[in-house]
Amino acid sequence: MEAAYVFGVRFTLSPRRARIDPESFETTLRIPAATPGEEGWLLFRDALWRGEANDADHVRRLCGDRLPEGVEVLSAEFRELETDEAYLAALRAAVGDDLAAVRSDSAREALHKYLGSSIRVVDADATDAADGDGDREVDATDAAGGDATDDRAE
Fold it and tell me: What is the distance between the alpha carbons of residues 33 and 20, in angstroms, rounded to a whole number?
């Protein structure tokens, strides 16, 4: 059971007695998602709204805290929750068990409210998720109900 919050991050380095070119770099940062129901599992509620960062400074700090000292995050953009089926099922169940925490009437509503359509289900057995094998996008409303939607292969 695995999942990660995926962010596009633009950062700069703080070199000592040197200049860098280019001055900023971009990368993809994956923050492992906490097990649903355990400490930190409500990151989606605390950092996202409709599939986007709800507070740019908070998300920039969230990403920066996971990088080495001397790396300054200039911007961070939420891209998706990358998850396997087992994590998604556990997330649905945990959200459904604690609807008050997500201020929603259903797991479907909560996942859509915070993640929008930014959930990507990855086949746990896929060897190369980067090329789309075993991947499919799931709208959060479908994710809450368990119905798969679009295949990513184009």
Answer: 33
What span, in angstroms and rounded, lies between the C-alpha atoms of 134 and 68? 32
Cα distance between residue 85 and residue 96, in whole Å: 16
Calculate helix-pair angle for 85-97, 107-115, nearest 10 degrees: 110
Q: Which residue has the tokens 């492992």?
A: 32
- The residues, any chain, with a CB within 8 Å of residue 68's CB and separated by 6 or more, are none
Beta-carbon contacts of residue 13 (< 8 Å; ≥ 6 apart): 20, 25, 70, 71, 72
Q: Using one digit for the tens of pLDDT, what is the confidence trace for 82-95?
A: 999 999 999 999 99
Looking up tokens 């990403």 gives 63
Q: Which two tokens stand for residue 119?
A: 């959930």
Beta-bridged to residue 119, according to DSSP, are 81, 138
Q: pTM above 0.70?
A: yes
